[in-house]
Amino acid sequence: MTNEKILKALYAAGKQMKDFDVCMSIVNRENGIPKLPCGLEYDLIIAGLIYELEKEMCEKGIKSAGKANLLATAKNILKTAKRDLSHKPDFQKPYTSGKYQCFCDGFRLLALSGNKKLEIDTTDRELINAENIIPKDNNNFAVLPELVNLKLEIARFKSEYTTKHNKHRIMARFKDDKDNIIFCVNAEYLYDAINATGAKNIYYKSAKSTLLVESENVKCAIMPIGYKKQHETIGTFHYIDVSPSGEICIVTEIVTAEGTNKEIA
Length: 265
Hints:
The protein contains seven helices and twelve strands. With 265 residues, it is an alpha+beta fold. The strands form three sheets. The protein has a five-stranded antiparallel β-sheet. The chain has a five-stranded mixed β-sheet with strand order 6-5-10-11-12. A two-stranded antiparallel ribbon has the order 4-7.
């Protein structure tokens, strides 16, 4: 069983207990389970296990953060293409466009050149011109979150808000220093782009323009997600918010006819 699955199971178990959120707050504040004169309750034990597992995953991630995993990102894009573009089988393998080896699923494009090309069977028939997709005038940029932190928040989001019958699309909202939303993007696509490039910034022109994450000989173009104004829809929504400095947290917004209540997890 992977650490992500263990973490998901621990969160699911903890959520069945009344004071679990309080216990998680205590453990995070004390950097582990505090020493108590009496025996430990199960909710505090589970909170401590979650803390230690996340800490271990974070430390391992930091050690390997500088190694961009191009193959993993390429496979994820091909997997999405197989799922969402089943009527276009040509997209289920990479293709050549000019100097680039391209992987595309309709929502994002991974374009590799030079020594970053992968040894994968690639068709010479150009499906989409990469030069027409890759942004060239994105002068604005936002700071990206650390890869390992984003991975942990995605895993946490899935464990708390995603079920077999309720699969949320995980939206990452980038905000400015006045808490205004600059643009939104699929958080898992964002993770893949950072993983492939090791980049520190994401470039954009506007909230609706194609986003770009890049490093030497690696370019990841991603379509943003449209975001409705908060007062237009009533309900409970969960997001991963990214601050101007790249710090991230899960935010729950409860929208009613009277307004919006925000809770930071």
